[in-house]
Amino acid sequence: MRHEKFLTVLAAGAMVLWAGLGTAHHSDAMFDRDTTLELSGTVKEFQFTNPHTWLQVMVPNEQGEEVEWSLEWGSPNQLGRQGIRPSTFPAGSKVVVRTNPMRDGTPGGAFIGAMLADGKTVGRWD
Amino acid sequence: MTKQIPRSVIPALCLALALPISAYAAESTLPDWSGVWAMEGGTVFDQATKTGEGGTTTPGVREHPPYNAEYEARYQRNLALRDQGILPDPNSLCGIPTGFPRIFNLPDVYEFAVTPKQVWVIAENGPNVMRIYTDGRDHPPPEDRWPTHTGDSVGHWEGETLVFTTVSLHSSESGRTLVDRTGLILSEAAHATTRMGINAQGQMEVEMTIEDPLALTAPWVVVKRFNRLEPGTRAYDYACNENNRNPIDEETGWTYTIGPDGRIMDKLEGQ
Predict the structure, then answer these.
(1) In B, which residues are within 8 Å of A76 by CB distance?
(2) What is the per-residue pLDDT for A21?
(3) Is A24 on the interface with B (CB under 8 A)?
(4) I need a labelling partner for B135 at 20 to 30 A (CA). Which of A49, A124, B98, B268 fits?
């Protein structure tokens, strides 16, 4: 379901999934690393840029309004060496994303992994 | 028919022949540090003295340099800010060089470029470059140098080990540099002797002996190791300001996140 009320707290307080932002650039204090959310939505844009890549995903909220989530991942350099490309997340594609969310509840977080509509997984998905 | 070489040109001929040979001989003794390398372990600078579980931003994690009481107190103040997530890191500003010794403590990849007269440490992250002169020069006299992020480094080869000294570094008190994100600091009196070369495991091993009469009670020896990546691995541009969505609040030290509309998304708790 693509709805915020169906966001799944997979393992609050217990399971830490950290895909590794390669956070030499900034502190990760804004992320709740003890919580993992699973979001279903539509890719708006994959910003394949330094110092971090950002996956922008449109996710419906409880009122059915589309909310844009900003999910931060590693540098394009790191990810490029691991086979990730600007085309990995085509705009308009359906995606399920796991994230360590922002502590203050704003729609963003640290990217952990994703599953695309064809079942292909990206990042950590275990 | 044979031609005799005039005696007068023999010295010049010998010199002409000898020069390329000696130049080649000098270059051929230089080690092969080609390829792309990545640091082993996380960005806790001194893994050997680390206590606590986690990385640099995990509360409770710290290192134990031989700090004097004053610098231990300063480090503890930084650790407290780190625990609150409000220790400002100059690295986050983009465009501020990491400096030495942190240049040997970065994620992403490295290249170590060996030439007959200089060695360049090229860190993709930042990007950062450190120049080490091996042409026999000494450090400039004190009146002709000033603090910089990577300082002034001169060195020589001992076999395939590069040995160099580094002076004229920015003090961490300037706010321009940290040694790592736990809040490790050094004073403007810091200087170091570094030995780097490939160890028996094929890793680039960098042993830094840091002395700092204002901050340390004894030399602080830290070893960082780097693994050579697969042949053909590429390093890329690291344009830090290309899309930096994490500015730092100058007053609080909190790292904000910029939303898709260009505005700050989050706030420091209590604001």
Answers:
(1) 236
(2) 55
(3) yes
(4) B98
Number of A–B residue contacts, CB under 8 Å: 109
**Domain boundaries of chain B, sorted by first residue:** 37-228, 241-271
User: Tokens 């986690």 — which residue?
Assistant: B54
Tell me, what's the pLDDT at B59?
94
The CATH number that applies at residue A85 is: 2.40.50
**Both tokens assigned to A30:** 């804004």
Whether the bond between B101 and the residue before it is cis, its omega within 30 degrees of 0, is yes
Find, in chain B, the residue whose alpha carbon is nearest to that of A105: B266
- Could you give the number of structural domains in chain A? 1
Q: What is the DSSP string of B30-95?
A: S----S-EEESS-S-S-GGG-BSSS-TTSTT-B----B-HHHHHHHHHHHHHHHTT----GGGGSS
Task: Give A126's pLDDT tier (boundaries 50, 70, 90).
Answer: confident
**What one-letter code names the amino acid at B182?**
T
**pLDDT tens digits, B60-115:** 999 999 999 999 999 999 999 999 989 988 888 888 899 999 999 999 999 999 99
Indicate yes or no: CB of B260 within 8 angstroms of CB of A104. no
Residues of A in contact with B125 (CB under 8 A): 24-25, 75
Asked if B106 is an interface residue toward chain A (Cβ–Cβ < 8 A), one would say yes
Range of the domain at A47: 4-123
Chain B residues in contact with A57 (beta carbon < 8 A) = none
Report the pLDDT averaged over residues A121-126: 94
**Sites in chain B below the pLDDT cut of 70:** 1-28, 268-271
B246 touches A at CB < 8 Å:
yes
